[in-house]
Amino acid sequence: MALHQGSLAILENNVGVSDAVLLDPVSEDAFIENLRLRYQHNQIYTYIGTVVVSVNPYKTTPLYTPNIIEEYRSRNIYELPPHIYAITDEAYRSMRDRHLDQCIIISGESGAGKTEASKVIMQYVAEVSGKGENIDTVKEQLLQSNPVLEAFGNAKTNKNDNSSRFGKYMDIEFDFKGDPIGGVITNYLLEKSRVAAQMPGERNFHIFYQLLQGAKLSTLDSLKLTREINDYNFLKGGVLGDVATMNDQENYDTVMHGMEVIGFTSGEVTSLFQLIASILKLGNIDFSHRSNDDGTDGCDLSNTAALDDAAELLGCSSENLTLALTQRTVEVRGERVKRDLSVNDGLYARDALCKALYSRMFSWLVARINDSIKVTSGSRTEVMGVLDIYGFEVFEQNSFEQFIINYCNEKLQQIFIELTLKEEQEEYIKEGIEWIHIEYFNNAVICDLIEKSNIGILALLDEECLRPGNATDLTFLEKLNQACQSHPHYESKALKKCQNDKTLSHGTFRLKHYAGNVTYKVDGFLDKNNDLLFRHLSQAMYQCKHCLMKGLFPEGNPSQKSLKRPATAGSQFKISVTELMKNLLSKNPNYIRCIKPNNVKAADNFDESLVRFQVRYLGLMENVRVKRAGYAFRQLYLQFLYRYKMLAGPTWPRWAGKPQEGVKILMQVQGVPEDEYAFGKTKLFIRNPKTLFDMEEKRRQHMHVLATKIQCVYKGWKQRTLYLLMKRSQVIISARFRGYWGQKVYKKTKAATLILQCFARGWKARALLRKLKREKLEIESANVIRKFYLGWKVRKEYQPRFRKIAGPKISRFFVIVLRKKFLLDLKRNLPSRSPISTEWPECPKRFLGASDQLRVMYHAWRCRKYRRKFSEAEKYKMKEKLMASELFKDKKEGYAKTVPMPFKGDYQDLLANPKWKKLQSQMPQDSHVVFADVVQKIHRANGKAVEQLLVMSTQNLILVEHHSMMIKYRIHITDISAMSVSPNPDKVIVFHLQKHDNGDGSCKKGDFVFVCEHTIELVAKACLLIQNLKDTLPEVHIAPMLKAHFGKSEVQLSFKNGLTENIPGGVKVVRKKHTMDVLYNSPSQQTSSGS
Ligand SMILES: Nc1ncnc2c1ncn2[C@@H]1O[C@H](COP(=O)(O)OP(=O)(O)O)[C@@H](O)[C@H]1O
Ligand SMILES: [Mg+2]
Q: Closest Cα to atom 25, ligand 1: which residue?
């Protein structure tokens, strides 16, 4: 067996045998001697197969350090010295790896070290499971639930300073990784009688002392408490002062810390302490006797201060609380009547209330802790249960509580027997393994005695409780005596077989438990089993304002009408124990059997007889024998093969044949000696666990090989994938790089080539240029030379004749140069283009002739240019003006004034005159009016002037009556033969008409004399019209004396200046016989100038 290294040096020198199966000889003495030997060497743990036997050392041992935990972590059970860690590790791993729910059952009598063992288990699990913020919180909460529950549920007894006064089963729940994620605590029957009274040498529950000793004064004040334990009736009865192994002050702090970690609010903690304080206060209430008038007994409260405090702490009125404690309501013939309580009844009611209050508060505490540690996620959980239930107890006086506790221990023993002794042996027979039966004591008979329905002690007790009539504890005992008189495990003074037994007194019965005889006093059995609280007390509590009270006393709710009797304490316990057994049986059990070495709680004190007693009743020797004769391990063939098939070539990776055949081959290949294993019908049995551990170890090593193979393949695949990826990447990268590089080189080469090309071309071009330049230079040089040569040659030739030839040539040259200069100067200094301009630049005498010619040419050219700008109408107007000029220039006075005035023609705006338009429609040939103006027609006969409208169309000369627009005369233009005007400034005009032989009407009267404002225009226009029609100009006479033919007479017109009157037309005509004198008004002398 491998021994510890380093930290476990203390265990290095293994003493005795660590597994009792290896004892030789197998005897009780040898077994106990082995235990003693080991105990003396602080080796407190010994195996019986996989069961751990633990002997309480009653001293601190270095067995629980973190280093040792590390040693045991993931190691097989037989690799290291026996330890709770080893079986915890085994259970933990098989839960985590094989998904088998586990339970660890710790049994042993009170003070044997069960609670300590359960803490060791939890410590180990917390240490080896995973870490993390959430997980650590859960672990811490699970661990901290211990001190809190111990404070409220443990007390000093005569057997154990820290005795658990309640049963505890804790399921620790793990996730698939094996990390704790929560838990559930189930509590079993708290020994509540301890609240009101304790046996000599014992104490009340720790919390009372811790609160008084540890809390600050201010806290105590608020709870109306004092530090003095003696001040409280409920504490006075027990041990006063400190217990040597307990430090209440320190423990108070630990409990407060624990509650904080679990998540209690300060309000919840205060509420709890208020209840504790109120229990202490209630305990201090005293009752005094009072005789009522009706002869009944009554009672009064004598310590009202305590009552007031309690009432205040519970949140109710003192009166109500007083009434609740001194009176009760009873139903008499359907009516509710209040009855006073006697002093004893009052005391009973007070204690019952305190016990109920405490036990219900304890249940609330467990529920509150469960609330904090419960698993919130819905995922599947693996469970490891740890059972630490009160141990077998034998006191001097044993009551209902001990009966219940011992019944529970009987059941646990039963389970142990069932699983380790009975079932195992039965299995060998069932599987056909050769087997010699080993005798053991089966305590089923005691279990039956207690729990069997109808006839068991619990059933009889219930029956007595429910029975109408006067049932007392003694009537119950009688009933028991009757029912169990023949039972081998039942004894009572009343029975014949025990009449001489001095150890039995009246009012008791004795049960021969598996662990020894216990005499129970029946006193209080009925009461405790009934566990009834007066209804009016529950109601009073329900009415309290304290926040927990409604939850703690739900039956006090007045609206809850049901008066159904609650199940008795005994039957409730039986039910919960049955449930517990069912739960344990559903899990894989692991055992820790605790042994108490002495009754004085002393270290290094091995009381052999006490140990022997425990070894016997725990059935440890039977356990050793069965283990030794039997096989340590069994498993179905298929499962076994599946687990170890890798250990043999033929079975790996698959076995095609029968599983048993495969297992056979496997065992042969492994070389396991044949007496080490046996083949059952369905299972393989292995005798020595070491064989299995060896195989397990080989499997582990093989798993390494397999894992390595898997890793190899995986790593290979992974590396190959990586390699392929890298290769692909490399190809891409190098392609890209080559491309990039090639491009770079190409660009460089291209640039270099271009530069080279440029240089080469430049060089070539420069060479060519040089060549061409040279050629050009050569040609130019040759030309120069040639010119010089030719010059020289010509000069040489012409030199003799130079004077003769050169003179005229030079003069010709100069003439040409001067001519060119003259023309260019003239071109630069040409005068304006106006036809009337007379300027002309100066010129050398030599070119005067040419200059004159050019001047004429230039003038003609600019006149032509000017003319070309005119329209036909303008040209005609110019023609008229020209005609006027030709006729009158320098011939008639007043002509010059008319030159700048344009010839308007139609001075009367005839075209706009409707009357004329009408008239004209009758004369289509006169549509084009050339002249129209009002004129004075001189009467031929008397020389008077008559105003008439003179219209000259292109065809006719028409005289119209100015106002009536009646045509007076219409003479064809061609009929006008001549016109006469004087040279004077008068405006007289004579139209000479042709003399027609045919006697034309118009012409018959002779020539016309008019005075017209526009004489010159009229004459010029008439001349042009006549020329147009006849191609010859009519005669125009301008003479101081004019002749006119009026019919057959000829009249001479003479002109005289000097009219003074203002006559229209400015002319006065006087007719004489052959003359006509024209007196005119000469305007201011005007100078006439030609145009
Ligand atoms: N493994 C141990 N190492 C040291 N002392 C122990 C050990 N087990 C128990 N004890 C001592 O024995 C006392 C009683 O143990 P406990 O576990 O409370 O007994 P049980 O729960 O069986 O009644 C403890 O208070 C402790 O002092
Ligand atoms: Mg305990």
A: 162
